[in-house]
Write a structure and sequence with these properties.
Strand content: 25-35%
CATH architecture of the largest domain: Sandwich
Number of helices: 6
Order of helices and strands: EEEEEEEEEEEHHHEHEEEHEEEEH
Strand order of the largest sheet: 2-3-9-7-5-10-11
Radius of gyration: 20 Å
Number of domains: 2
Number of strands: 19
CATH topology of the largest domain: Immunoglobulin-like
Length: 337
């Protein structure tokens, strides 16, 4: 018998509920050279127990202690059908250093569906349902307060269009502070190579954009590969910096995202310079481009992609999106510039 969903507006701080969150196996992060299996929305830091009705793929990178933190989850059926549209309920609580066990769920919020740029499901519906063979991909996004580092337990409850109420559970890791450049930080003064360097023979075209590999060495979307970030910062130019690998991105989000940003670059040419940093200098040798590494590699490894950063005319990062970009938020940020 379906269990009713607690009201999304009711905080659980006063009336904590204790549930058991078990990690059966860790799914692979969607990172350079590695990622989730086909259909997994962005990878996960914790997997659900096999008895749960929803598989929860935690899709956020570089989650750190703080207020109003964005977290994302991809939701799948046992047959790996993606749940899309509408809203679901998230409940979470701090586990500490333990990756499994009982946790008091102290927060509750609503997560809304966000389509992957260039891969959005058709239409817009108010109630979640599984995409049974339909094209499209996306995640559920929420803003939460994370006051302690360590492992956090997550429970997701979804009331489907067909009346079923399903749930899934997972665990995700919260860092003491961000490791990737974040809002308020100065932008890295990257001296990135451009399409002109490839044409002069100083670098392989595929190291500028992985789409330029194979039999056609032409670098696509030349306007994304003409700007040197350090020079733009010196000139006081706002920037949109995308760190993606369109060919090798295991989540397959990078290619459609890069295409979308190439179109936006024309529309906002008078607002900001758009720069694409290819992750791989040599994928076969597993060698990362230094320029991309300055933005996404960390002391503990890092290297997840895609990322999008917005830098204002003072050289300060004013917005960033990990994994899945909210295009409405990006356009609002550009309008504010």
């Amino acid at each position: 018998m379906p269990r009713p969903v607690p009201p999304a507006t009711t905080p659980l701080r006063r009336h904590g509920r204790v549930v058991t969150l078990l990690v059966a196996a860790a799914l692979v992060l969607a990172a350079c050279g590695g990622g989730p299996a086909d259909g997994d929305p962005g990878g996960a830091q914790g997997a659900t127990d096999a008895s749960d009705q929803l598989a929860v793929a935690f899709a956020s990178f570089d989650v750190a202690v703080g207020e109003d933190r964005r977290i994302m989850t991809g939701l799948l059926s046992s047959e790996r059908e993606l749940l899309a549209h509408g809203e679901v309920t998230l409940q979470l609580g701090h586990l500490g250093e333990e990756a499994a066990g009982e946790v008091e769920l102290t927060q509750q919020t609503t997560a809304s569906f966000l389509g992957i740029p260039g891969m959005e499901p058709a239409g817009a519906e108010d109630t979640p349902r599984f995409l049974s063979g339909e094209p499209g991909n996306g995640v559920y996004v929420a803003r939460v307060d994370l006051d302690e580092p360590g492992n956090w337990g997550l429970r997701v409850v979804a009331e489907l269009a067909d009346g079923r109420v399903l749930e899934g559970r997972s665990v995700f890791r919260v860092l003491p502070e961000p490791e990737v450049p974040t809002v308020g930080d100065p932008a890295p003064r990257t001296v990135n190579l451009t399409a002109a360097d490839a044409e002069a023979g100083r670098i392989a075209p595929a190291a500028i954009d992985s789409r330029a590999g194979g039999t056609d060495p032409t670098i696509p979307d030349r306007h994304l590969h003409d700007t040197v970030i350090a020079e733009a910062l010196d000139a006081g130019e706002p920037l949109v910096v995308a760190v993606t690998t369109p060919v090798y991105c295991m989540s397959r989000f990078c290619g459609p995202l890069t295409d979308v940003l190439a179109e936006m670059a024309h529309a906002y040419a008078d607002t900001a310079s758009f720069v694409h940093l290819e992750v791989w200098k040599d994928h076969d040798a597993q060698e990362v481009n230094e320029a991309a590494g300055e933005w996404i590699l960390t002391e503990t490894g890092g290297g997840n992609e895609p990322w999008v950063f917005v830098v204002d005319g003072d050289g300060t990062i004013v917005a960033r999106w990990d994994n899945v970009v909210d295009l409405e938020e990006l356009e609002a940020t550009l309008a504010a510039l």
